Amino acid sequence: MALKKQIKDKGSNTLVTFTIGENEAPSSSNVLLLGDFNNWQSNDRTFQMEKKGNTYVKSIKLENGKRYEFRYLSDDKGWFNDHAADDYVPSPYSGIQNSVVDLSVIPQKEKPIKKTVTKTVKKTASKAATKTIQKAKKDDLKKIEGIGPKIASILTEKGIGTFEKLSKASVKVLEGILKEAGPRYAMHKPGSWPKQAKLASTGKWDELKKLQDKLDGGK
């Protein structure tokens, strides 16, 4: 699953594209996108997901400056969440959480990351040395199935901000990080993340795509 955000109308609105992989909802079933933006009205078929190839897709324009709760509803699978949501909050129904798309902060276009910065530092008046400072390299961890913006931020803060580092992290360590972050993150299953990250770190994007097509929310 994935949430793609594109600023529209000079920043007052954002076009959000909701995407569900074929393995995450039955291919023979209709899937509805329901949430605050349509008052959770299941009879509103204008929010039915469109099937495109192996995925279900729906793009809607939402006003910036707000957080929207949502879930998916399929005819034969019932309700289910987006594993790449920005956040999760308790719903009015006990034991159930809603997915969240967060537009409270207007998304900005990604800027190219400079990997290396060179500085010349004068140590003394009689002696000078050249020092190369490596700026922390970061990869877009959201390319890993099952990792959304919030989890990517959590992993980066824990020193796992690149595909290479994620590929070398044990599942037990990842589970510990998610558990420490709270119950809304502990529900995620990172079992496939190191394997996905290894393919990404070596540039094997076609193999990664084939693997992700077989996964269900990263599992």
Automatic annotation (TrEMBL):
CDD domains found in the cross-reference section: E_set_Isoamylase_like_N
InterPro entries per the UniProt record, alphabetical: Ig-like_fold (IPR013783), Ig_E-set (IPR014756)
One Pfam family matching this protein: HHH_5
SUPFAM superfamilies documented for this protein: E set domains
Domain of life assignment: Bacteria
Gene3D superfamilies: 5' to 3' exonuclease, C-terminal subdomain, Immunoglobulins
Name recorded for this polypeptide: Helix-hairpin-helix domain-containing protein
